[in-house]
Amino acid sequence: LTQYVTERSAFVATKLNANIEAIKNGAVLVGQTLTTGNVVLLENQNTHKENGLWEVGSEVTNRLPEFPTAQSQDGLTVTTKKPDESGKTVFYLTFTAGRLNVSTERPVEI
């Protein structure tokens, strides 16, 4: 029996176009100091394949092992411990037309 993960928590989310190489232990994102192992949600990257969940490393930030690509995050609901710049803490991820979209609106199922 295959079990699919549909919910994931993250430490913080940001609407800013973040430099992934700068997101590492000790960096500050949305006023929060990051530590190794924190999970961050990038909502609005200029390169859309960079949207989604990332795990903060001591020197390098990588995709989470269970979600190695933007497409693998399709259908996730992400709850953050700290709000983004708009005060939001619940996000819905959908992968369409080759990009991962992050929204605070629940997708309509047809």
Quick description:
The chain is mainly β.
**Poorly predicted ranges (pLDDT <50, ≥5 residues)?**
none
DSSP strand tally:
10
**Largest sheet entry:** 4 strands, mixed
**Ends: how far apart?**
26 Å
Give the % helix: under 10%
- Quaternary structure of the protein: single chain
Fraction in beta strands: 25-35%
Mean pLDDT: 91
Radius of gyration based on Cα positions: 13 Å
Shape designation: globular
- Helix/sheet category: mainly beta
Strand order of the largest sheet: 1-8-9-10
Q: Number of helix segments? A: 0
Summarize the helices and strands and which ones pair or pack.
Layout (H helix, E strand, L loop, with lengths): L6 E4 L1 E3 L13 E2 L2 E2 L5 E4 L9 E4 L6 E2 L13 E4 L9 E7 L2 E5 L7
Parallel strand pairs: 1-8, 2-5
Antiparallel strand pairs: 3-4, 5-6, 6-7, 8-9, 9-10
How would you describe the overall organization of this protein?
The relative contact order is 0.24. The protein has no helices and 10 strands. With 110 residues, the chain is mainly β. The protein has strands at 7-10, 12-14, 28-29, 32-33, 39-42, 52-55, 62-63, 77-80, 90-96, 99-103. The chain has a 4-stranded mixed beta sheet, with no helix packed on it. Strands 2-5-6-7 form a 4-stranded mixed beta sheet, with no helix packed on it. The protein has a two-stranded antiparallel ribbon with strand order 3-4. The mean pLDDT is 91.
